[in-house]
Amino acid sequence: MNLSALTITQAAERLQKRDISSTDLVKACIEAIEKKDKQLNAVVHRNFERALFEAKNIDSEKKADGNPLRGIPYLAKDVYCEKDVPTTACSNMLRNKDYLPPYDATTIRRLKAVGAISIGKTNTDEFTMGGSTETSCYGVTKCPWDVSRVAGGSSGGSAAAVAADECVFALGTDTGGSIRQPASYCGCVGLKVTYGRTSRFGVMSMASSLDTIGTFGKTVEDAAIILQAIAGRDPLDGTTGDVQVPDYRAALAKGVKGLKIGLPREYFIEGMDPEVETAVREAAKAFEGLGATIVDVSLPHTDYGIATYYVICPSEVSSNMARYDGVRYGHTVKNPENLIEYYERVRSEGFGPEVKRRIMIGTYALSAGYYDAYYRKAQKVRTLVKKDFEDAFQKVDLLLAPTAPTPAFVIGAHTNDPVQMYLEDVFTVPASLAGMPGLSIPCGFSRNNLPIGMQLIGPHFREDLLFQVGHAYEQSTDWHTRKPNI
């Protein structure tokens, strides 16, 4: 077996036994990137020399550290600040100046503390705005299962890299589905955490009340191991919850017997791919076979999710993007006639069309005379969406739904139709508005051999329950073991 194809658990076991070295693992991932990434375009910055140096230091230790992440190579989405490593959010606003952060994001720092090794940065939609990586200044990331199709977004680079075994695991961010949707398209495991479960410090913001830090892994157990290392309160991020971090791996063996799993009727809608619906309903039958009870539930305000999200998200984008003015850092221009022209040229040249679109929508929604009509009303609907989930969790332990309405779509299919692109997040946005955790797991393949993902949604801070249920499903199926031929 190619070493880069190992799961975290498999790699850690072999490292502990000294059957392989961390250097071997890092070299295997480097070779995979150099072999495959010309086709995929998943990796946009490479830290290979530093990664090999760190791996050799770990290999030289006399006593092996017991942490399963020690010596394990990973990739991070290109919005995670990492000291002295190019971090550009895949935008010309920062790319043109080769921005090098002077510090580490909390998540990067916590992974360094347990010995995980960063080997590079992955492609993303510009400042995470998009659902396909087509807005990236580095070009689109391609799906490992069919390079004529997108890998999803915005964390498409991380999903593709994990699915193609270019790394052992990867970091992403999820604001409205940006981990779960690409995980579904690429056939890997993607975790969106509860809002406040992980620190956002040092990760470039898009929509501050929605952004979450999450992971891509090859198995549910991998996701549990990573979250164990990065979860918890951070004094540098006031939105992190002061909530105890449980032993996530201990939850894996509990099974699903006696659990009630809800199927929200609003998530099986006209227009979704029938193969997706079939795969998810078959997964529900599999859970019944494992001892769970499937319950029909309703989330009545689901239909308002996309409209609500695309008022709140652009409004926060409008505020967060204001810092990119070319004065302190970022893109600059020469010979402006005055300060106003300087700002106009910096932002016109630095930002792409999708970022500009969201800034304009958000600025309009927040402007005098429209704030109450749009932003305030969207926040009220957000409260109703959250209450839908809270009511459902009075009846069931967690929810099962499709992750995306279709498998990966063809590159360019939605380029001229942003609304259609937004609708790809129709099943992921509601949980984001409510701050709930979600886990996307492979549950089938289309007739075109494209992965299909299902989404488990749990109550706040119950990632352990998602791992418990997801792991039980994985143990009874083999979807997660299938690999793309690339």
Radius of gyration: 21 Å
Any idea what the CATH superfamily is called? Answer: Amidase signature (AS) domain
Ranges where pLDDT stays below 50 over 5 or more residues in a row are none
User: Strands across the major sheet, in which order?
Assistant: 1-3-2-6-8-7-12-13-11-9-10
Give the count of helical stretches.
16
Query: How much of the polypeptide forms β-strand, as a percent range?
Result: 5-15%
List the helices and strands in order. Answer: HHEHEHHEEEHEHEEHEHEHHHHEHHEEH
**Could you estimate the helical fraction of the residues in percent?**
25-40%
Integer count of domains: 1
Bulk shape = globular
* Derived structural class: alpha/beta
- Just name the CATH architecture: Alpha-Beta Complex
List the helices and strands and how they pair.
Layout: H1 8-16, H2 22-40, E1 43-46, H3 48-59, E2 73-77, H4 92-95, H5 106-113, E3 117-122, E4 142-143, E5 146-150, H6 156-163, E6 169-174, H7 180-186, E7 189-192, E8 212-217, H8 220-230, E9 260-264, H9 274-289, E10 293-297, H10 305-320, H11 339-350, H12 353-366, H13 372-392, E11 398-402, H14 418-423, H15 429-434, E12 438-445, E13 451-457, H16 463-476
Helix pairs in contact: 2-3, 6-7, 8-16, 10-12, 10-13
Structural summary, described in words:
This protein has helices at 8-16, 22-40, 48-59, 92-95, 106-113, 156-163, 180-186, 220-230, 274-289, 305-320, 339-350, 353-366, 372-392, 418-423, 429-434, 463-476; strands at residues 43-46, 73-77, 117-122, 142-143, 146-150, 169-174, 189-192, 212-217, 260-264, 293-297, 398-402, 438-445, 451-457. The chain has a single domain (3-265, 391-481), classed as Amidase signature (AS) domain (Amidase signature (AS) enzymes, Alpha-Beta Complex). The protein contains 16 helices and 13 strands. The longest helix has 21 residues, at 372-392. The chain has 486 residues and is of the alpha/beta class. Strand 4 and strand 5 form a beta hairpin. The protein has an 11-stranded mixed beta sheet, sandwiched between helices. The chain has a two-stranded antiparallel ribbon with strand order 4-5. The protein is globular, with a radius of gyration of 21 Å.
